[in-house]
Every structure is written in C-alpha cells, then in structure tokens.
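We modelled the chain as a single entity of 270 amino acids. Its sequence is:
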Amino acid sequence: MMVAEPETSSFSIRQPTTIKTKGGICIMLYFFGTSLLFINSHLSAHHDNVQDRISDYKRICRGLDFPKILPIKSHRYTSDITSMFDYVFWFGDLNFRISQPRDAVLEQVSTNGQPRFSQAILKHDQLLSLITEGSAFKGFSEAPIHFPPTYKYDPGTGNWDSSDKQRTPAYTDRILYRCKTSRTVKSLAYDSLTYVKTSDHKPVWGLFTVTIRPGSEANVSYSLFSIPLSAGLFQRDIYLAALERRATALEIKKRKTMPSKSKSLVCSIQ
C-alpha cells in the first residue's frame, strides 16, 4: 500500500500555562492519491462559553503547523487548514451544550431515572445550530444521533450528575467530518459506549467509508513516487522488480504442485 509517512501537529489554546488541557492534536497522511486529516480537540467548557468555543475552533485551524514534508500548499495561505484536505475528521470533547433549562432536558432524556435518547433536544443543540449558521465547523457534517447525551454522569455509574454543579445533560462528545465536493463519506455506525463508567463522559465511536483516489501522476499535481512513505522513500524500479520476482515465485510454486504427466493415472486418448 502507498501510505505516506504521517505528519503530526498540536496547538494549545492555553499557551502560557504549564498544563495544557485545552486545544487540538492532529495527524495527516496520504493514502494513495487521497489526503486525510484527523483532529482531536478539547474546547472550552461551560454552557455560556459558546463564543470561546468558536474562537478555539478558529485558533486551532490557524495554529496547527504542518505540513512540513508532504506536498500540500502551506496553511499560511489560508486561515482554515481543513480546507486543504480531501477528507477531514474532527472529534473529541467539543463541549457544546443544550440550550434548555436542566429540568426540561432531564424530563426528555430520562425514563425512570435512566438515560435515553430524545430527538427533541437536538433542536436546541449548540453545535448543530452553529454548523447550520456557518459560525463554526462550516461544511462539516455529523451522522444522525440516536444515543443518550454523553455528559454529565456520576463517575462509576450511568446516572446523571448529582453533584452540587448539577450539570445539564448534553452531547459534548462528537465526531464530525467534511470532504471536498467530489468526494463522499458514508457513515456505517455512530454510537456511544454507555457501559464505560470510568469518566463523567460517555465516549463515542464511529465507522465510516471514504472513496480513495488512485495514486497516479495523471490525476495529482505532484509525483507520488517522490514523497516519503511510511516504510521509506518509494522507489518505483525496486517496487516493480519485487512484483516481478513475486510473480515468478508464485508461478514456480504453482508448477511444483501440478501433477506430473508421466505419473498421471488418467488415460489420455488422442
């Protein structure tokens, strides 16, 4: 497989502090002729800090420092690094909340005190509203949600937050994706792991398929045979020689397993 050597970057939205708990980390790679970017981020907390989260998103887009090796136009020419890639997956604790009073939300997402899914509260989801408005994560999509809110739980249980903070249930943990107009992303699964009880969040997971563009010099603006691959620099002549040797070895093995005509017990009449 032709997989380019991955590049990584990170950006903290709390630069002066020693402990950097908010920001984004990412990895990018080429798979044949297709570029992919994966970003994991932790944005500013609390219900009313919507503008802070929008600012975090924009700062991460500007602050991620790469690519350094792979032949993609430098991000210095754009304020949105995600626009340079064929596929982008952005996920993590994005910290967006539900814009409804806690009692109203609890009534919709609880059955006998147990968490459940409610389509109605998604109309008040901050992130979905911002995507629709284009204020943040413009062009990104999310697979349909059919699981209970992922936040906030009493650690070690499946019960909503009973601490003094009394946090309102919300979908803080998300997986978003975006692709160029000529590409497609298909969501096969999107769910939360409700049985995980080590945190006050429930992790989410997703399964997606994407279309990979063939890696040929005819349909890309650079030579795939000159970029650093995960196993080293690709050398076409060595690759073709290896394929030829493999084909020869398979042919020899095939001949050895075929029964000899001189020892055949089958009668041949001509």
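As a brief sanity check on the tokenised model: Confidence is low (pLDDT under 50) at residues 216-225, 264-270. The longest helix spans residues 236-257.
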